[in-house]
What we know:
Elements: H1 4-19, H2 24-39, H3 43-47, H4 50-54, H5 59-66, H6 72-84, E1 98-102, E2 111-115, H7 117-132, E3 147-151, E4 158-160, E5 163-166, H8 168-174, E6 184-185, H9 187-191, H10 196-206, E7 212-217, H11 219-232, E8 247-251, H12 259-263, E9 271-278, E10 281-285, E11 294-296, E12 302-308, E13 337-344, E14 351-361, E15 366-372, H13 386-400, E16 406-414, E17 417-425, H14 432-446, H15 448-454, E18 458-466, H16 469-477, H17 493-504
Parallel strand pairs: 1-5, 3-6, 3-7, 7-8, 8-9, 17-18
Antiparallel strand pairs: 1-2, 4-5, 9-10, 10-11, 11-15, 12-13, 13-14, 14-15, 16-17
Helix pairs in contact: 1-7, 10-11, 13-14, 14-15
Protein name: GH3 auxin-responsive promoter
Pfam families: GH3, GH3_C, GH3_M
Domain GH3 middle: 297-362
Amino acid sequence: xxxxxxxxxxxxxxxxxxxxxxxxxxxxxxxxxxxxxxxxxxxxxxxxxxxxxxxxxxxxxxxxxxxxxxxxxxxxxxxxxxxxxxxxxxxxxxxxxxxxxxxxxxxxxxxxxxxxxxxxxxxxxxxxxxxxxxxxxxxxxxxxxxxxxxxxxxxxxxxxxxxxxxxxxxxxxxxxxxxxxxxxxxxxxxxxxxxxxxxxxxxxxxxxxxxxxxxxxxxxxxxxxxxxxxxxxxxxxxxxxxxxxxxxxxxxxxxxxxxxxxxxxxxxxxxxxxxxxxxxxxxxxxxxxxxxxxxxxxxxxxxxxxxxxxxxxxxxxxxxxxxxxxxxxxxxxxxxxxxxxxxxxxxxxxxxxxxxxxxxxxxxxxxxxxxxxxxxxxxxxxxxxxxxxxxxxxxxxxxxxxxxxxxxxxxxxxxxxxxxxxxxxxxxxxxxxxxxxxxxxxxxxxxxxxxxxxxxxxxxxxxxxxxxxxxxxxxxxxxxxxxxxxxxxxxxxxxxxxxxxxxxx
Length: 505
Protein backbone atom coordinates (compact mmCIF):
# COMPACT_ATOMS: atom_id res chain seq x y z
CA UNK A 1 0.00 0.00 0.00
CA UNK A 2 1.36 3.42 -1.00
CA UNK A 3 1.85 5.71 2.00
CA UNK A 4 3.99 8.55 0.65
CA UNK A 5 2.44 8.50 -2.84
CA UNK A 6 -0.88 10.20 -1.95
CA UNK A 7 0.96 13.01 -0.15
CA UNK A 8 3.32 13.58 -3.09
CA UNK A 9 0.41 13.48 -5.54
CA UNK A 10 -1.55 16.03 -3.50
CA UNK A 11 1.47 18.35 -3.26
CA UNK A 12 2.04 18.11 -7.03
CA UNK A 13 -1.63 18.80 -7.68
CA UNK A 14 -1.47 21.97 -5.58
CA UNK A 15 1.73 23.04 -7.35
CA UNK A 16 0.09 22.48 -10.73
CA UNK A 17 -2.92 24.61 -9.80
CA UNK A 18 -0.76 27.53 -8.67
CA UNK A 19 1.70 27.44 -11.58
CA UNK A 20 -0.63 26.84 -14.53
CA UNK A 21 -0.56 29.63 -17.12
CA UNK A 22 -3.93 30.52 -18.68
CA UNK A 23 -3.13 33.75 -20.58
CA UNK A 24 -0.16 32.76 -22.72
CA UNK A 25 -0.08 35.99 -24.75
CA UNK A 26 0.19 38.07 -21.57
CA UNK A 27 2.81 35.69 -20.18
CA UNK A 28 4.93 36.19 -23.30
CA UNK A 29 4.69 39.98 -23.04
CA UNK A 30 5.99 39.77 -19.47
CA UNK A 31 8.84 37.43 -20.47
CA UNK A 32 10.02 39.75 -23.26
CA UNK A 33 9.94 42.79 -20.97
CA UNK A 34 11.91 40.87 -18.32
CA UNK A 35 14.52 39.76 -20.86
CA UNK A 36 15.01 43.29 -22.15
CA UNK A 37 15.19 44.78 -18.63
CA UNK A 38 17.81 42.22 -17.53
CA UNK A 39 19.97 42.60 -20.63
CA UNK A 40 19.66 46.32 -21.42
CA UNK A 41 23.12 47.12 -20.00
CA UNK A 42 24.91 44.21 -21.71
CA UNK A 43 27.01 44.77 -24.83
CA UNK A 44 24.19 43.29 -26.91
CA UNK A 45 21.50 45.36 -25.21
CA UNK A 46 23.43 48.61 -25.61
CA UNK A 47 24.24 47.86 -29.27
CA UNK A 48 20.64 47.17 -30.21
CA UNK A 49 19.08 49.85 -28.01
CA UNK A 50 17.04 47.78 -25.57
CA UNK A 51 16.38 50.94 -23.54
CA UNK A 52 14.58 52.50 -26.50
CA UNK A 53 12.68 49.28 -27.21
CA UNK A 54 11.41 49.24 -23.63
CA UNK A 55 10.03 52.78 -24.03
CA UNK A 56 8.01 51.79 -27.09
CA UNK A 57 4.22 51.51 -26.98
CA UNK A 58 4.54 48.21 -28.85
CA UNK A 59 7.57 46.45 -27.36
CA UNK A 60 7.17 43.28 -29.44
CA UNK A 61 7.19 45.13 -32.76
CA UNK A 62 10.01 47.44 -31.66
CA UNK A 63 12.08 44.43 -30.58
CA UNK A 64 11.52 42.69 -33.95
CA UNK A 65 12.59 45.86 -35.83
CA UNK A 66 15.64 46.53 -33.65
CA UNK A 67 17.24 43.06 -33.50
CA UNK A 68 18.08 40.92 -36.55
CA UNK A 69 17.77 37.13 -36.62
CA UNK A 70 20.75 35.14 -35.38
CA UNK A 71 21.60 31.54 -36.16
CA UNK A 72 24.20 29.80 -33.99
CA UNK A 73 27.15 30.88 -36.12
CA UNK A 74 26.17 34.56 -36.17
CA UNK A 75 25.39 34.58 -32.44
CA UNK A 76 28.60 32.76 -31.60
CA UNK A 77 31.02 34.60 -33.87
CA UNK A 78 29.71 38.11 -33.18
CA UNK A 79 28.89 37.77 -29.47
CA UNK A 80 29.37 34.50 -27.61
CA UNK A 81 33.02 34.15 -28.63
CA UNK A 82 33.73 37.28 -26.57
CA UNK A 83 31.96 35.72 -23.60
CA UNK A 84 33.93 32.48 -24.05
CA UNK A 85 37.20 34.41 -23.63
CA UNK A 86 36.01 35.48 -20.18
CA UNK A 87 34.41 38.87 -20.93
CA UNK A 88 31.25 39.41 -18.82
CA UNK A 89 28.00 41.12 -19.73
CA UNK A 90 28.07 40.30 -23.45
CA UNK A 91 24.56 39.03 -24.20
CA UNK A 92 23.45 38.40 -20.59
CA UNK A 93 24.62 39.89 -17.27
CA UNK A 94 27.78 38.29 -15.87
CA UNK A 95 29.30 35.04 -17.13
CA UNK A 96 27.59 31.63 -17.36
CA UNK A 97 29.08 28.73 -15.42
CA UNK A 98 28.03 26.16 -18.03
CA UNK A 99 28.21 25.69 -21.79
CA UNK A 100 25.86 23.14 -23.35
CA UNK A 101 27.48 21.06 -26.05
CA UNK A 102 24.87 20.43 -28.71
CA UNK A 103 24.76 16.84 -29.95
CA UNK A 104 22.16 17.56 -32.60
CA UNK A 105 22.02 16.20 -36.09
CA UNK A 106 23.19 19.26 -38.00
CA UNK A 107 26.68 20.63 -38.38
CA UNK A 108 30.05 18.88 -38.41
CA UNK A 109 31.35 20.46 -35.20
CA UNK A 110 29.62 20.53 -31.82
CA UNK A 111 28.17 23.86 -30.80
CA UNK A 112 28.57 25.24 -27.29
CA UNK A 113 25.65 27.31 -26.02
CA UNK A 114 25.67 29.33 -22.79
CA UNK A 115 23.62 27.99 -19.88
CA UNK A 116 23.12 30.68 -17.23
CA UNK A 117 21.94 30.19 -13.65
CA UNK A 118 18.60 31.68 -14.75
CA UNK A 119 18.29 29.05 -17.46
CA UNK A 120 19.08 26.22 -15.03
CA UNK A 121 16.38 27.58 -12.72
CA UNK A 122 13.96 27.76 -15.66
CA UNK A 123 14.73 24.14 -16.63
CA UNK A 124 14.20 22.98 -13.04
CA UNK A 125 10.90 24.86 -12.86
CA UNK A 126 9.77 23.37 -16.18
CA UNK A 127 10.71 19.87 -14.99
CA UNK A 128 8.69 20.33 -11.80
CA UNK A 129 5.73 21.56 -13.80
CA UNK A 130 5.98 18.57 -16.11
CA UNK A 131 5.91 16.17 -13.14
CA UNK A 132 3.03 18.14 -11.58
CA UNK A 133 1.04 17.73 -14.79
CA UNK A 134 1.15 13.95 -14.30
CA UNK A 135 -1.62 14.42 -11.73
CA UNK A 136 -3.91 14.95 -14.75
CA UNK A 137 -3.21 11.39 -15.88
CA UNK A 138 -4.85 8.25 -14.53
CA UNK A 139 -1.94 7.06 -12.41
CA UNK A 140 -2.00 5.07 -9.15
CA UNK A 141 -0.48 6.55 -6.00
CA UNK A 142 2.42 4.06 -6.13
CA UNK A 143 3.89 5.83 -9.15
CA UNK A 144 4.39 9.03 -7.16
CA UNK A 145 6.62 7.38 -4.56
CA UNK A 146 8.64 5.27 -7.01
CA UNK A 147 11.92 6.25 -8.66
CA UNK A 148 12.70 8.07 -11.91
CA UNK A 149 15.26 6.71 -14.38
CA UNK A 150 16.57 9.46 -16.67
CA UNK A 151 18.79 8.21 -19.48
CA UNK A 152 20.71 11.25 -20.66
CA UNK A 153 24.28 12.17 -21.38
CA UNK A 154 27.16 11.68 -18.97
CA UNK A 155 27.24 13.95 -15.93
CA UNK A 156 31.05 13.74 -15.99
CA UNK A 157 31.37 17.25 -17.40
CA UNK A 158 34.50 18.84 -18.87
CA UNK A 159 36.23 21.89 -17.48
CA UNK A 160 37.73 24.32 -19.99
CA UNK A 161 38.65 28.01 -19.84
CA UNK A 162 36.63 28.50 -16.67
CA UNK A 163 33.45 26.85 -18.02
CA UNK A 164 31.87 23.50 -17.24
CA UNK A 165 30.90 21.87 -20.55
CA UNK A 166 28.56 18.98 -21.34
CA UNK A 167 25.29 18.09 -23.05
CA UNK A 168 22.19 19.76 -21.61
CA UNK A 169 20.80 16.51 -20.14
CA UNK A 170 24.10 15.95 -18.35
CA UNK A 171 24.17 19.53 -17.05
CA UNK A 172 20.56 19.24 -15.86
CA UNK A 173 21.21 15.89 -14.15
CA UNK A 174 24.30 17.28 -12.42
CA UNK A 175 22.13 20.07 -10.97
CA UNK A 176 19.38 17.88 -9.51
CA UNK A 177 18.56 19.11 -5.98
CA UNK A 178 19.95 16.91 -3.19
CA UNK A 179 16.48 16.15 -1.80
CA UNK A 180 15.63 14.41 -5.12
CA UNK A 181 18.76 12.22 -5.13
CA UNK A 182 16.97 9.36 -3.41
CA UNK A 183 14.38 9.25 -6.24
CA UNK A 184 16.79 9.74 -9.16
CA UNK A 185 18.32 6.82 -11.04
CA UNK A 186 20.78 5.66 -12.22
CA UNK A 187 22.41 8.00 -9.68
CA UNK A 188 25.39 10.28 -10.06
CA UNK A 189 28.02 7.51 -10.02
CA UNK A 190 26.60 5.59 -12.99
CA UNK A 191 25.48 8.78 -14.77
CA UNK A 192 29.06 10.03 -14.76
CA UNK A 193 30.32 7.02 -16.77
CA UNK A 194 31.38 8.40 -20.15
CA UNK A 195 31.28 5.16 -22.14
CA UNK A 196 27.69 4.53 -23.25
CA UNK A 197 27.88 0.72 -23.32
CA UNK A 198 29.51 0.55 -19.90
CA UNK A 199 26.86 2.88 -18.44
CA UNK A 200 24.02 0.73 -19.85
CA UNK A 201 25.69 -2.44 -18.53
CA UNK A 202 25.82 -0.96 -15.03
CA UNK A 203 22.15 0.04 -15.27
CA UNK A 204 21.27 -3.54 -16.24
CA UNK A 205 23.23 -4.88 -13.26
CA UNK A 206 21.60 -2.51 -10.77
CA UNK A 207 18.07 -2.63 -12.20
CA UNK A 208 16.83 -5.28 -9.73
CA UNK A 209 17.58 -2.90 -6.83
CA UNK A 210 15.37 -0.11 -8.13
CA UNK A 211 11.62 0.58 -8.15
CA UNK A 212 11.27 2.58 -11.36
CA UNK A 213 7.90 4.27 -11.97
CA UNK A 214 8.97 6.79 -14.60
CA UNK A 215 11.45 6.73 -17.51
CA UNK A 216 12.94 9.64 -19.44
CA UNK A 217 15.10 9.74 -22.55
CA UNK A 218 15.32 9.67 -26.34
CA UNK A 219 13.35 6.64 -27.66
CA UNK A 220 16.09 4.99 -29.74
CA UNK A 221 18.62 4.89 -26.89
CA UNK A 222 16.09 4.14 -24.17
CA UNK A 223 14.83 1.15 -26.12
CA UNK A 224 18.36 -0.26 -26.37
CA UNK A 225 18.77 0.21 -22.61
CA UNK A 226 15.47 -1.54 -21.83
CA UNK A 227 16.41 -4.47 -24.06
CA UNK A 228 19.74 -4.75 -22.24
CA UNK A 229 17.98 -4.80 -18.84
CA UNK A 230 15.56 -7.48 -20.08
CA UNK A 231 18.34 -9.60 -21.60
CA UNK A 232 20.73 -9.32 -18.63
CA UNK A 233 18.05 -10.17 -16.07
CA UNK A 234 16.39 -12.86 -18.24
CA UNK A 235 12.95 -11.21 -18.24
CA UNK A 236 9.84 -11.51 -20.37
CA UNK A 237 9.08 -7.78 -20.10
CA UNK A 238 10.48 -4.77 -18.30
CA UNK A 239 7.50 -4.90 -15.91
CA UNK A 240 8.85 -8.16 -14.49
CA UNK A 241 11.52 -6.09 -12.75
CA UNK A 242 9.80 -2.67 -12.53
CA UNK A 243 6.10 -3.45 -11.89
CA UNK A 244 5.25 0.18 -11.04
CA UNK A 245 6.56 1.58 -14.34
CA UNK A 246 3.69 3.63 -15.80
CA UNK A 247 5.18 6.80 -17.31
CA UNK A 248 7.69 7.46 -20.07
CA UNK A 249 8.61 11.09 -20.83
CA UNK A 250 9.91 11.05 -24.38
CA UNK A 251 11.85 13.78 -26.12
CA UNK A 252 14.22 14.64 -28.93
CA UNK A 253 12.30 12.86 -31.68
CA UNK A 254 8.71 11.80 -32.36
CA UNK A 255 7.75 8.72 -30.35
CA UNK A 256 5.11 7.29 -32.70
CA UNK A 257 7.53 5.37 -35.00
CA UNK A 258 8.85 3.56 -31.90
CA UNK A 259 5.49 2.79 -30.30
CA UNK A 260 5.01 -0.74 -31.61
CA UNK A 261 8.53 -1.89 -30.69
CA UNK A 262 8.26 -0.30 -27.23
CA UNK A 263 4.94 -1.99 -26.52
CA UNK A 264 6.61 -5.36 -27.05
CA UNK A 265 8.83 -4.57 -24.05
CA UNK A 266 5.89 -3.74 -21.76
CA UNK A 267 3.25 -5.97 -20.21
CA UNK A 268 1.29 -3.06 -18.70
CA UNK A 269 0.02 0.27 -19.99
CA UNK A 270 2.68 2.99 -20.00
CA UNK A 271 1.68 6.62 -20.51
CA UNK A 272 3.94 8.39 -23.02
CA UNK A 273 4.40 12.09 -22.26
CA UNK A 274 6.22 14.26 -24.81
CA UNK A 275 8.76 16.93 -23.87
CA UNK A 276 10.83 19.48 -25.78
CA UNK A 277 14.19 20.06 -24.09
CA UNK A 278 16.90 21.55 -26.32
CA UNK A 279 20.41 22.80 -25.59
CA UNK A 280 18.91 26.29 -25.66
CA UNK A 281 16.30 25.55 -22.98
CA UNK A 282 13.16 23.67 -21.94
CA UNK A 283 10.64 24.84 -24.52
CA UNK A 284 7.49 22.75 -24.10
CA UNK A 285 5.94 19.74 -22.36
CA UNK A 286 2.73 17.76 -22.65
CA UNK A 287 0.29 18.88 -19.94
CA UNK A 288 -2.78 16.71 -20.40
CA UNK A 289 -3.67 13.15 -21.47
CA UNK A 290 -6.31 14.14 -24.04
CA UNK A 291 -3.60 15.08 -26.57
CA UNK A 292 -0.01 14.25 -27.44
CA UNK A 293 0.66 17.92 -28.24
CA UNK A 294 2.97 19.90 -25.96
CA UNK A 295 2.32 23.25 -24.32
CA UNK A 296 4.88 25.98 -24.89
CA UNK A 297 6.33 27.14 -21.57
CA UNK A 298 5.31 30.72 -22.17
CA UNK A 299 6.37 31.99 -18.73
CA UNK A 300 9.62 30.03 -18.51
CA UNK A 301 12.29 32.55 -19.51
CA UNK A 302 11.88 32.06 -23.29
CA UNK A 303 10.19 34.49 -25.69
CA UNK A 304 8.85 32.88 -28.87
CA UNK A 305 8.41 34.26 -32.39
CA UNK A 306 7.21 32.43 -35.49
CA UNK A 307 7.99 32.69 -39.23
CA UNK A 308 5.59 30.95 -41.64
CA UNK A 309 7.47 27.93 -42.95
CA UNK A 310 7.03 28.50 -46.67
CA UNK A 311 9.58 28.47 -49.52
CA UNK A 312 9.23 32.25 -49.96
CA UNK A 313 10.15 32.92 -46.35
CA UNK A 314 12.63 30.20 -45.35
CA UNK A 315 15.67 29.47 -47.50
CA UNK A 316 16.94 25.98 -48.35
CA UNK A 317 19.78 26.33 -45.80
CA UNK A 318 17.26 27.07 -43.03
CA UNK A 319 17.90 30.83 -42.87
CA UNK A 320 15.06 33.36 -42.92
CA UNK A 321 14.52 35.25 -46.17
CA UNK A 322 14.59 39.05 -46.21
CA UNK A 323 11.14 40.51 -45.66
CA UNK A 324 9.67 37.32 -44.17
CA UNK A 325 6.72 38.02 -41.84
CA UNK A 326 7.35 37.41 -38.15
CA UNK A 327 4.42 36.57 -35.90
CA UNK A 328 3.90 36.64 -32.14
CA UNK A 329 1.84 34.07 -30.26
CA UNK A 330 -1.18 36.33 -30.66
CA UNK A 331 -0.98 36.18 -34.48
CA UNK A 332 -0.35 32.51 -35.29
CA UNK A 333 -2.88 30.13 -36.84
CA UNK A 334 -3.51 26.50 -36.04
CA UNK A 335 -2.29 23.69 -38.32
CA UNK A 336 0.27 25.85 -40.14
CA UNK A 337 4.02 25.18 -40.04
CA UNK A 338 6.28 27.84 -38.51
CA UNK A 339 10.02 28.19 -38.09
CA UNK A 340 10.64 28.79 -34.39
CA UNK A 341 12.59 31.84 -33.15
CA UNK A 342 13.56 32.21 -29.48
CA UNK A 343 15.09 34.76 -27.11
CA UNK A 344 16.15 33.42 -23.72
CA UNK A 345 17.51 34.04 -20.23
CA UNK A 346 20.74 32.43 -21.46
CA UNK A 347 21.42 35.38 -23.78
CA UNK A 348 20.21 33.98 -27.10
CA UNK A 349 18.45 36.69 -29.11
CA UNK A 350 16.00 36.14 -31.99
CA UNK A 351 17.74 32.81 -32.35
CA UNK A 352 16.85 30.32 -35.09
CA UNK A 353 16.74 27.09 -33.15
CA UNK A 354 16.25 25.13 -36.38
CA UNK A 355 12.94 23.44 -35.52
CA UNK A 356 9.57 23.81 -37.20
CA UNK A 357 6.31 23.54 -35.27
CA UNK A 358 2.58 23.78 -35.78
CA UNK A 359 -0.10 24.84 -33.31
CA UNK A 360 -2.80 22.31 -32.55
CA UNK A 361 -4.54 24.53 -29.96
CA UNK A 362 -3.65 28.22 -30.05
CA UNK A 363 -5.51 29.18 -26.87
CA UNK A 364 -3.62 26.55 -24.89
CA UNK A 365 -0.35 27.31 -26.77
CA UNK A 366 -0.10 23.61 -27.66
CA UNK A 367 2.22 22.57 -30.46
CA UNK A 368 3.75 19.64 -32.27
CA UNK A 369 7.26 19.61 -33.71
CA UNK A 370 6.96 19.11 -37.47
CA UNK A 371 10.63 18.88 -38.40
CA UNK A 372 13.82 20.82 -38.92
CA UNK A 373 14.30 23.82 -41.19
CA UNK A 374 17.30 22.09 -42.80
CA UNK A 375 15.63 18.68 -42.96
CA UNK A 376 12.69 19.90 -44.98
CA UNK A 377 12.77 17.79 -48.13
CA UNK A 378 12.00 20.29 -50.87
CA UNK A 379 14.69 19.77 -53.53
CA UNK A 380 12.07 19.30 -56.26
CA UNK A 381 9.12 21.07 -54.65
CA UNK A 382 7.89 18.07 -52.65
CA UNK A 383 7.65 20.15 -49.43
CA UNK A 384 7.93 17.19 -47.07
CA UNK A 385 8.32 17.94 -43.38
CA UNK A 386 9.70 15.31 -41.03
CA UNK A 387 6.26 15.04 -39.42
CA UNK A 388 4.70 14.12 -42.77
CA UNK A 389 7.42 11.52 -43.31
CA UNK A 390 6.94 10.07 -39.83
CA UNK A 391 3.17 9.92 -40.36
CA UNK A 392 3.69 8.00 -43.60
CA UNK A 393 6.10 5.61 -41.86
CA UNK A 394 3.51 4.99 -39.13
CA UNK A 395 0.93 4.16 -41.81
CA UNK A 396 3.44 1.79 -43.38
CA UNK A 397 3.89 -0.02 -40.07
CA UNK A 398 0.14 -0.43 -39.68
CA UNK A 399 -0.44 -1.53 -43.27
CA UNK A 400 2.22 -4.26 -43.18
CA UNK A 401 2.03 -5.05 -39.44
CA UNK A 402 5.70 -4.37 -38.97
CA UNK A 403 8.10 -2.11 -37.06
CA UNK A 404 10.17 0.66 -38.65
CA UNK A 405 12.10 2.35 -35.87
CA UNK A 406 14.49 4.48 -37.90
CA UNK A 407 14.69 5.90 -41.39
CA UNK A 408 16.66 8.34 -43.48
CA UNK A 409 15.96 9.75 -46.92
CA UNK A 410 17.72 11.78 -49.60
CA UNK A 411 16.64 13.45 -52.83
CA UNK A 412 19.31 11.79 -54.97
CA UNK A 413 20.07 12.22 -58.65
CA UNK A 414 20.06 8.90 -60.50
CA UNK A 415 20.83 9.01 -64.24
CA UNK A 416 20.12 12.73 -64.26
CA UNK A 417 16.73 12.54 -62.51
CA UNK A 418 15.81 13.06 -58.87
CA UNK A 419 14.57 10.11 -56.82
CA UNK A 420 13.71 9.91 -53.15
CA UNK A 421 15.90 7.15 -51.77
CA UNK A 422 14.78 5.78 -48.40
CA UNK A 423 16.57 3.48 -45.96
CA UNK A 424 14.20 1.83 -43.48
CA UNK A 425 15.33 0.03 -40.33
CA UNK A 426 13.05 -3.00 -40.38
CA UNK A 427 13.05 -6.80 -40.45
CA UNK A 428 9.76 -7.09 -42.37
CA UNK A 429 9.39 -9.70 -45.11
CA UNK A 430 7.49 -7.20 -47.26
CA UNK A 431 9.42 -6.50 -50.46
CA UNK A 432 11.21 -3.20 -51.00
CA UNK A 433 9.04 -2.57 -54.07
CA UNK A 434 5.81 -2.96 -52.05
CA UNK A 435 7.14 -0.68 -49.34
CA UNK A 436 8.16 1.95 -51.89
CA UNK A 437 4.76 1.89 -53.61
CA UNK A 438 2.86 2.14 -50.32
CA UNK A 439 5.10 4.92 -48.98
CA UNK A 440 4.80 6.85 -52.25
CA UNK A 441 1.01 6.55 -52.26
CA UNK A 442 0.68 7.55 -48.62
CA UNK A 443 2.68 10.74 -49.23
CA UNK A 444 0.70 11.52 -52.39
CA UNK A 445 -2.58 11.18 -50.49
CA UNK A 446 -1.38 13.38 -47.63
CA UNK A 447 0.55 16.09 -49.47
CA UNK A 448 -0.59 17.88 -52.62
CA UNK A 449 2.86 19.37 -53.27
CA UNK A 450 4.45 15.93 -53.13
CA UNK A 451 1.86 14.58 -55.55
CA UNK A 452 2.62 17.39 -58.01
CA UNK A 453 6.37 16.82 -57.67
CA UNK A 454 5.90 13.12 -58.38
CA UNK A 455 4.17 13.96 -61.66
CA UNK A 456 7.06 16.20 -62.73
CA UNK A 457 10.61 16.48 -61.39
CA UNK A 458 10.56 13.68 -58.80
CA UNK A 459 10.87 10.62 -61.02
CA UNK A 460 10.84 7.77 -58.56
CA UNK A 461 10.96 6.36 -55.04
CA UNK A 462 13.36 3.67 -53.87
CA UNK A 463 13.29 1.83 -50.55
CA UNK A 464 16.14 -0.17 -49.04
CA UNK A 465 15.55 -2.39 -46.01
CA UNK A 466 18.41 -2.59 -43.52
CA UNK A 467 18.95 -4.01 -40.06
CA UNK A 468 17.76 -1.38 -37.52
CA UNK A 469 21.06 -1.70 -35.65
CA UNK A 470 22.86 -0.09 -38.60
CA UNK A 471 21.50 3.30 -37.55
CA UNK A 472 23.09 3.12 -34.10
CA UNK A 473 26.24 1.74 -35.76
CA UNK A 474 26.28 4.85 -37.95
CA UNK A 475 25.98 7.15 -34.93
CA UNK A 476 28.81 5.24 -33.31
CA UNK A 477 30.85 5.64 -36.51
CA UNK A 478 30.13 9.38 -36.38
CA UNK A 479 31.37 9.46 -32.75
CA UNK A 480 27.83 10.25 -31.64
CA UNK A 481 26.51 7.54 -29.36
CA UNK A 482 23.93 7.66 -26.57
CA UNK A 483 22.26 10.38 -24.57
CA UNK A 484 20.81 13.07 -26.78
CA UNK A 485 22.00 11.85 -30.19
CA UNK A 486 19.36 11.77 -32.93
CA UNK A 487 19.51 10.13 -36.35
CA UNK A 488 19.42 12.43 -39.36
CA UNK A 489 16.07 11.93 -41.06
CA UNK A 490 17.06 13.83 -44.20
CA UNK A 491 20.54 13.96 -45.72
CA UNK A 492 22.02 15.99 -48.53
CA UNK A 493 23.74 14.08 -51.34
CA UNK A 494 27.24 14.51 -49.91
CA UNK A 495 26.30 13.11 -46.49
CA UNK A 496 24.13 10.44 -48.10
CA UNK A 497 27.11 9.15 -50.12
CA UNK A 498 29.06 8.85 -46.86
CA UNK A 499 26.09 6.96 -45.36
CA UNK A 500 25.84 4.57 -48.32
CA UNK A 501 29.61 3.99 -48.33
CA UNK A 502 29.37 3.14 -44.63
CA UNK A 503 26.60 0.62 -45.28
CA UNK A 504 28.55 -0.93 -48.13
CA UNK A 505 31.60 -1.37 -45.94
